[in-house]
Design goal:
The protein is mainly beta and 239 residues long. It has four helices and 13 strands.
């Protein structure tokens, strides 16, 4: 599962680096993006406009939007068949813009899990492969005033050798050179071919403080490395 990530570039720099047409307002650097928050996405390759969507997919057919709380990730192995995602997999792909993500290494009983921060060695921004959908309240019994939602989920795959010592899954990372293919792929074969672990030699990782456990904390200090001497996993394993 990927449940936290970062987008720590200012809007102008991100727009330039990824060749984006426009950026949403307001914009702020983010160091602890969490589920149910609104996150930057690109749903259409033709326009390349960045729009906010709520993280946690609510399928168009859902009766209760609370289902989105359980739909923050979709597994690459089953995304084409699972009822919650198969409609979006056919024709509603999106890019979820990021420059890093967190995963937690399970600790022995009685100890807290250790968070790690993962990013590209170049520190360049990238995109997660995502899916999106529109949802509207249904039925005459729907509570008045409930607005429609545009929501998304990010796709995960098996971990590469950088992520695997910490967690068995990782998000599907698309670098600038490949990310637009996710929005233009036509056949299921083309789509599934993109849902692979990123080459490990492109990534780096380090342990960070447990302050990231709280979504209320969102500042640059969260991505600063801590001393790994007493951790069960050594920093050199992640390079």
């Amino acid at each position: 599962m990927c449940g936290r990530f970062t987008m720590a570039l200012d809007a102008e720099r991100l727009q330039m680096k990824l060749d984006l047409a426009s950026m949403p307002e307001p914009w702020a650097k983010r160091y602890n993006i969490a589920p149910s928050q609104y996150i930057p996405t690109v749903p259409f390759a033709e326009s390349r406009h960045v729009v906010y969507m709520r993280w946690g997919l609510v399928p168009f057919w859902a009766q209760d939007p609370a289902i989105g709380n359980r739909m923050i990730n979709a597994r690459a192995e089953t995304v084409a068949e699972k009822p919650s995602f198969r409609s979006s997999f056919k024709n509603k792909h999106c890019l979820i813009l990021a420059d890093g993500f967190y995963e937690w290494q399970k600790a022995s009983e009685g100890k807290s899990s250790q968070p790690y921060y993962f990013t590209l060695k170049t520190r360049e921004p990238f995109a997660f492969a995502g899916l999106w959908d529109d949802w509207e309240p249904k039925g005459v019994s729907s509570e008045p005033g409930i607005p429609g939602l545009t929501t998304c989920t990010l796709i995960t795959t098996t971990a590469n050798r950088v992520v695997a010592p910490v967690h068995p899954r990782m998000p599907v990372i698309l670098t600038k050179e490949r990310m637009w293919e996710w929005l233009t792929a036509k056949t299921e074969t083309e789509k599934l071919a993109l849902l692979k672990p990123l080459e490990p030699e492109l990534m780096q990782a380090w342990p960070v403080g447990r302050e990231v456990n709280s979504p209320a904390i969102d500042d640059e200090s969260l991505i600063h490395p801590i001393d790994a001497m007493n951790q069960s996993i050594k920093q050199e394993q992640l390079l």
